[in-house]
Write a structure and sequence with these properties.
Layout lengths: L1 H14 L4 E7 L3 H9 L3 E4 L6 E7 L1
Antiparallel strand pairs: 1-3, 2-3
């Protein structure tokens, strides 16, 4: 369900003219981090909050 939902959100974002999606994920949320990686999002630790990953993907 998560993969289909994210793909639908990415498609809608593109249709509305957005060029990038970005967000934050808790470092302990391994499932979401794996999903983001499988969808091609780049990930890096937040320099201000090490318990967070910053994720982004060009659409």
């Amino acid at each position: 369900i998560g993969t289909r939902l994210m793909r639908a959100l990415m498609s809608e974002a593109r249709d509305r003219g957005l060029t990038i999606m970005e967000g934050t994920v808790l470092a302990e949320n391994a499932g979401m981090l794996q999903l983001m990686q499988s969808l091609g999002f780049s990930m890096r630790r937040s320099p201000e909050e090490p318990e967070l990953y910053l994720v982004e993907r060009w659409l």
